[in-house]
């Protein structure tokens, strides 16, 4: 009965004394297997050999905030630049459509010289004449009626501009999502480096404790070797975490168009969780603001306007033309006229009205109309699919956001439970009531819980950014 009431410290003390007594007893010499040298426990985790990943050999790192990264991303992203230039071209298309209502004005000038001796076919004699000739003039034409083609082209140009504006809007959110993903990956990997460093420090302390207990004969060589393996594994994990952090920084640098490495500046306001989300209102708003739907709707409008423009080719066109021309026998207007010839220019003018109606052009009009009608029907089908895809994506992204938020709460609880379990296993191992396997299992569980918490926090931010890119506004 007395042995059942002894305290744990007394039991530990008895175990240490028994181990020391056994160690002092004479034993027959036996060959010992070679044991690998354990790593020096006093090695600091921050000075682990990481090759090219050492801070001294790493390239210079520039720090950016999320706002700076988003701005740089929109300025650099090739798809973003292409969408901006497409909108610029579409704006010029609208200007050109307006220009079709204005007259076309052409200025011309000619000057020529040649041989002064010319043969007169009427008299059969060679005569002398002034070889210099010059003229200049202006001509203008105005389309009075184009079979409603100018109006259709104007509608098509405006629709194309709206289409490119919608494409730019969609690219804005796509670029922002890509930048946010790269930014949050950098933050996550930076924190995971800290988790790996803390895990290495924990294994360093454990290796020191195991080494000291082995020296006192209170543990076995197997425990010491197991602790050494765990320490080496923690070193490898730290090296891998640093490599992942450098890779994420390089990816962020590419996403925002910056040379070298780019580190993300942490901001606690980014992790403010959303309160209750009105899913019904969000779905209603998304139908009007979702970039994919807006772009598909603009594509339908542009295709319909293009079809109307092609149908206008069946109408005749009526145009008015006028010209004024001046001519004189001088090489240039500022040159002097020959003797006996007036230096003034003689002016002539003309006015014309023309009506054109293509009766048959090898079914070219019909082919253009069929192509435009096919594009219009295809755009309508894509619009229906875009609305269905929006509904499905909303369901998926809202569910992912809710799940990510719940995972954060579970992960925080898991970290607290793993910390308490490790504390108890450390105390039990110190008193000899637990094995090295129990202690290392608890350490591994804590490390995994901390990694999962970091990943879940940034998974929530990425899920939120994906939902914002889908609906076309911030939440």
Helices and strands in order, then pairings?
Layout: H1 8-24, E1 61-64, H2 66-76, H3 78-99, E2 104-112, E3 117-120, E4 125-128, E5 133-145, H4 149-215, H5 221-256, E6 261-264, H6 279-289, H7 291-311, E7 317-328, E8 346-356, H8 364-430, H9 436-471
Parallel strand pairs: 1-6
Antiparallel strand pairs: 2-5, 3-4, 5-7, 7-8
Helix pairs in contact: 2-4, 3-4, 4-5, 4-7, 4-9, 6-8, 7-8, 8-9
Note down, in words, how this protein is organized:
It is a single chain. This protein has 475 residues and is α+β, with helices and mostly antiparallel strands. The protein has two domains: 36-100 and 146-316 and 358-471, Outer membrane efflux proteins (OEP) (Up-down Bundle), CATH 1.20.1600; 104-142 and 317-356, Outer membrane efflux proteins (OEP). It is built from nine helices and eight strands. The protein has helices spanning 8-24, 66-76, 78-99, 149-215, 221-256, 279-289, 291-311, 364-430, 436-471, and strands at residues 61-64, 104-112, 117-120, 125-128, 133-145, 261-264, 317-328, 346-356. A four-stranded antiparallel sheet has the order 2-5-7-8, with no helix packed on it. The chain has a two-stranded parallel sheet with strand order 1-6. Helix 3 (78-99) packs antiparallel against helix 4, helix 4 packs antiparallel against helix 7 and helix 6 (279-289) packs antiparallel against helix 8 (364-430). The longest helix has 67 residues, at 149-215. It is elongated, with a radius of gyration of 42 Å. The chain starts with 7 loop residues before the first helix and ends with a helix.
